[in-house]
Amino acid sequence: MSMKWIASAFLCTGLAIACGGGGGGGGDGSGVDRDEVVADLSQDELGDLCEYFIGLQEQPERTVDCGDGVTLTVGINPEDVDEEIADCASEGPPAGCPVTVGEVEDCFEQLEAFSDAQLCSDTTELPAACDFINDPLCQ
C-alpha cells in the first residue's frame, strides 16, 4: 500500500495489512457518513475515521512467525493509540481522490479479518474492496 494516509491509518509496525484479529471498532463504522469523499472530510471527521481504523487493530502487539526467517509484527498497544490516531488524522488523501468513507471502512474491515496464515502467504491478495489503494489519484 503506497498511500501515506492509508498506511498511517492502518499501521502495524511497518506492514499496513498485517493487522488480523483486531479488537474493536463496533458495528457502526466510524460514524462518518459512508457516502462522504474522504478527501473532503473535515479534520474532526478524518479523526473519527482514523479512530475507527485504529480501534479495529487495537490489540497487544505480537509477532507472527511466517517461517523461513520471516516475521511480522501485528497489533498496536493501547498506550500507542492516541499517537496513532493523531498521526493518521494529520494527513488525509490527496484532493481528487474519489474514495468514500464507506469504501475505506469496507476495505479495512476486510483487512482486519485476515488470519495469520493469510498475512504470511505470498498469494494473499488485497480484497476487492481495497482496489482504491492502487488508484493513481489516491497515491
Task: Describe what you observe in this structure.
By secondary structure, this protein is α+β, with helices and mostly antiparallel strands. It has helices at 4-9, 43-57, 81-89, 101-112, 116-120; strands at residues 59-67, 70-76. The chain has one domain. The protein has 5 helices and 2 strands, in the order H-H-E-E-H-H-H. The chain has a two-stranded antiparallel sheet. A hairpin with a 2-residue loop joins strand 1 (59-67) and strand 2. The model is unreliable at 1-26 (pLDDT under 50).
Please render the helix and strand layout as text:
Layout (H helix, E strand, L loop, with lengths): L3 H6 L33 H15 L1 E9 L2 E7 L4 H9 L11 H12 L3 H5 L19
Helix pairs in contact: 2-3, 2-4
Short précis:
This protein is an alpha+beta fold and 139 residues long. Helix content is 34%, strand content 12%. The chain starts with a helix and ends in a 19-residue tail after the last helix.
Keyword list:
single chain, 139 residues, alpha+beta, 5 helices, 12% strand, globular, disordered N terminus
Radius of gyration computed on alpha carbons: 14 Å
Structural class: alpha+beta
Helix count equals: 5
Q: What proportion strand?
A: 5-15%
Poorly predicted runs are 1-26
The order of strands across the largest sheet is 1-2
This entry's quaternary arrangement is: single chain
Largest sheet: 2 strands, antiparallel
The mean pLDDT is 76
Give the CA-based shape: globular
Total tally of structural domains: 1
- Binned, the helix content reads 25-40%
Distance from first to last alpha carbon: 9 Å
Q: How many E strands?
A: 2
In N-to-C order, the SSE pattern is: HHEEHHH
